[in-house]
Amino acid sequence: MSLSCENACTLIPSYLDGEVSEEQAGPLRQHLMACPACREVTKSETALGRWIVAGPPVAAPAGFASRIARAAFSGRAEPELPPQPEPSQPAERDGALYSFVLAATATAAAALFALSIGLQRASLPSESGLDAAPELDTLLREIELENRQLEEGGAATDSWGRGQ
User: Dihedral angle at the C-alpha atoms of 39, 40, 41, 42, nearest 10 degrees?
Assistant: First the structure.
C-alpha cells in the first residue's frame, strides 16, 4: 500500500507517539524512506517533541469531581469555585540584614559614581595639550611643496615620500 504525502503527514504525529498500528506504521516507514519532504516533517516533529516535557501529575482539589457534577446537573455553565485563601503576607524582613544590604548598595553606588567622574576627568585632554600651531606650520609647508610639484608636473608625494 502506497501512502500519499497528505496521508503520511496526518499519520506522522501519531506514529511518533507510538499510537499507530503496525499495518499503518509499515507503509508510513516505506513512504518516509522514499520521500525527503515527509522525512523533514518527521524530523521537525521529533525536534518539537523534545521541547515538550511532561510535568509531574497534578492532583485535583478536594471535592472537584462533585462540584463539576453538581454544576453539570444544575445547568450552570461554570462550577462554583470554593473560596480562595487570602494570600499570605511576605515574611518580616530581618531589620539588621536589610539595613546592611541597603547601606552596602548605596555605598557601592556612590563609589562607582565617584570612580566614573574621576575616570572621565582623567581621560579628557587639558588645554595645554590642545595647541596645534607647531604641527600646523609643518603641515602647511608640506602642502605648499606638493602644490608646487604638481604645478611643475612632478609626481605628488605624501609626508612619507610615497607617490599618490
Answer: 50
pLDDT, greater one: 13 or 51: 13
Q: Are residues 46 and 16 in contact, defined by beta-carbon separation less than 8 angstroms? A: yes
Contact 35, 8 (CB under 8 A): yes
- What end-to-end distance do the CA atoms of the chain give, in Å? 78
Report the 10 Å Cβ neighbour count for 12: 20
pTM of the entire predicted model: 0.34
Q: Residue 39: what residue type?
A: R
Running DSSP on this structure, what letter comes out for residue 153? T
Residue 55: DSSP 8-state:
-
| pLDDT tens, position by position, 92-119 | 556 778 888 889 999 999 999 999 888 8
- 3-state SS, residue 157: strand
**Residue with the larger pLDDT of the pair 96 and 164:** 96
**What is the chain's Cα-based Rg?**
40
Residue 42: closest CA among 31, 53, 55: 31
Note the pLDDT of residue 38: 92
Q: Give the separation between CA 69 and CA 76, rounded to whole angstroms.
A: 10
User: Is-contact 13 44, C-beta < 8 A?
Assistant: no
